Structure formats: structure tokens, C-alpha cells
Amino acid sequence: MSNIITLKEEAKLEIYQYIDKHIRSLPKKQNGKFDEFSNGFLDNDVDALRHAYVSGVYTMVYNEETADKLGQLQELVMTKDEFLSQIKEGNYSGYSYKTVDGIEIPISKRDRYKFNNLG
């Protein structure tokens, strides 16, 4: 059985390469890797194709039920970089970020709830 994370990363790379070659050029970092956290990857056709393709790969490798559950889980889980990207795009108005020793850290904006504050 394949490692789910490795399989997902391989599938994402495959669909990004396809889009970049056949549909439109995708943003890349200086090292040539796709810059997934730049504009052009979220809440658009690239996002939809990525979800559909990864789900299809999961279905082929595992089964339809597992693919469905992994897709649902993906909607609940975000990496720190994904969260920072969403904050910067204004999708989480209750949060901002600060840079500490060159590292961007998400922080919640102060509110009246004591346990609702990240920084």
C-alpha cells in the first residue's frame, strides 16, 4: 500500500505539470518548483483539477470510500503555509501574522474570549 502523503504529492505534481504544459503557465519559485501558495492555485480551476485528480488517484490505489474520506479530511486540515496564504488573501479576518526571526507565524486578532487568542 502506498504512503498517502507521498501519493498525494506525486499526484499534485503530475496535475500541476499537465496544467502548466497544456492549459497555462503556473507560478514557480526561483528553484523552478511550483509555488502552491501564490495566487493562481486556490479557489479556481487549478484547485478543482487538483482535488479531482488526487481523488481519482486515491480511488485507483485504494477505493472510492477511502478517496471520499480523504477528500473530506483534506477540507478540514490546512498546513501552516496554506493557513498563512489564506490569511494574506483576507479569507480569515480574525487572524493576521507576524514575522519572528524571519519566520511568518499566524496569530489571531485579540477579541474578548481569553482562550481564542493565538498570539
Question: Can you tell me about this structure?
Answer:
- There is one protein chain.
- The protein has 119 residues and is mostly helical.
- It has four helices and two strands; from the N terminus they run H-H-H-H-E-E.
- The protein has helices at 4-22, 45-61, 64-76, 80-88; strands at 95-100, 103-108.
- It has a two-stranded antiparallel sheet.
- Helix 2 (45-61) crosses helix 3 (64-76).
Summarize this, please?
The protein has helices spanning 4-22, 45-61, 64-76, 80-88; strands at residues 95-100, 103-108.
- Ranges with pLDDT <50 over ≥5 residues? none
Structural class: mainly alpha
Q: Percentage of helical residues?
A: 40-55%
Main sheet? 2 strands, antiparallel
SSE map:
Blueprint: H1 4-22, H2 45-61, H3 64-76, H4 80-88, E1 95-100, E2 103-108
Antiparallel strand pairs: 1-2
Helix pairs in contact: 1-2, 2-3
